[in-house]
Specification:
about 525 residues, alpha/beta, 5-stranded mixed sheet, 4-stranded mixed sheet
Length: about 525
Amino acid sequence: MADDHTSQGFGIYGSRLAKLNPTPTLDKVAKEGIIFNNCFVNNSICTPSRAAILTGQHSQANGVLDLEGVLPMEKQYLPQEIKKLGYQTALIGKWHLTAQPNFDYYNIFTHHHQQGSYFDPWLTETGMNFTLWDDKNYEGKQYKGHSSDIVTDITLDWLDKKRDPEKPFMLMYQFKAPHDNFAFAPRYKDYLEDTFIPEPESLYNNKNNGSIATRGENGELLSVIGSSISKRNTVRNYVDIIWDEKLMEKSNPDFDKSKYINDKMTDKEITSATYQEYIKRYLRCVKGVDDNVARVIKYLKENDLYDNTIIVYTGDQGFMLGEHDYMDKRWMYDESMRMPFFVRYPESIKPNTRTDAIINNTDFAPTLIEMAGGNVPDKMQGKSFKTILETGNEPENWQKSTYYRYWMHMAHKHANPAHFGIRTKTHKLIFYYGKYWVDTDNPDAEWNKESWGNDFTNHTPAAWELYDLEKDPKEMNNVYNDANYKEIIAELKTELKNKRAELDEEDGDKFPHIQKVIDAHWND
């Protein structure tokens, strides 16, 4: 699993970047197995997504709503169940769930509040004293080099020297890359340097995407909501961030911004130059992931493990690569919500298979447990898609929609309003309720007021959005107020209501300040 490796950053998903061939190794593995076109995250932010993967549960059920959530050892159901089946378990790289991992072996990023650093990172290994939140007082080891290379070195060492070759294994091999601020290994500094990268049309013209929830009544929120590539967002935009030469100190010490940007340029030219630099750094990090995966594939082949090991690749969510002039994840728009997902296992998965079946990250654990010969625990909300892997066919009674909820209202200067919604193969319905999950109007309420860059107390307008994904796959036209969609909206709201009840995702008595907004605007 890579961090923020979105489906646009592959060859296999046919995006505007596919012709650049950014992932030759991963594409080859994918084509030797099954590729999912409709895999979606339940909550597009690192910690909650990782918790959903390990528990098979949505955020309220597993207790991890946002980046401050903790997943205790006893709730790490996937490794628990896999261990019961006689597997040894290992976790290497990015963890970001605060509690000690319930794996036989782990070696994970601990510094920078568990993000790790791109260069010379500190990691904490099994047997060391385990504290994650205090950067000054923890036991760890500093490794020299680039994090993608280091995670791979540790992975190869575990495969070669630390595992018991007589026992089956489950290994979670997890990169920091390509998370921002995209510090790539120096060997990639010339990759794509002279290439013009295709730009999304919506970077410059967002047409009728969004609503008063994202724009305000008269456009007054455009300068504060959704971190941007252009100068649009005055609080957090990449024009202000990416040209800081300190960011390139280790990746490209000779970096000279005057080669790319100057005061004589128009705003549009500055946006384009910033986008080009942003996307090239991102893809250089992706290249580092792809090349390192190639090292592990080579080891598996040389040690007769390639064909009898189930290989799964995914990202912890999608990522906006300038679409709608957004960067980062968090949004329910497809680029942020869709996860890359493919599985190779020639013993039971036919090569060159693709499916449009809808799956989400709560379905991963049930599927892996069944693939390993176990039974899915009742407490898991996700469904096993083992039969889809093995037949390539979607069963008639398979889920027709997936539920989404982003809780972390107006956080970290990315400033995304809290929202939930439902996506089918043909439509997407989003409701922005615009409040933090703690009632910040209550004088007795407690929340983390030190949380960096938060604007939790800023309630934003409630609004609905509807996208017809068959006519409008890039989500450029919110048709919620189009009378032709009245029946579809009614059906989707019924489905949304049912999903929220079924998944214990309702607000009700738990979050009455949010329920109030839902009740007031459900029939808008």
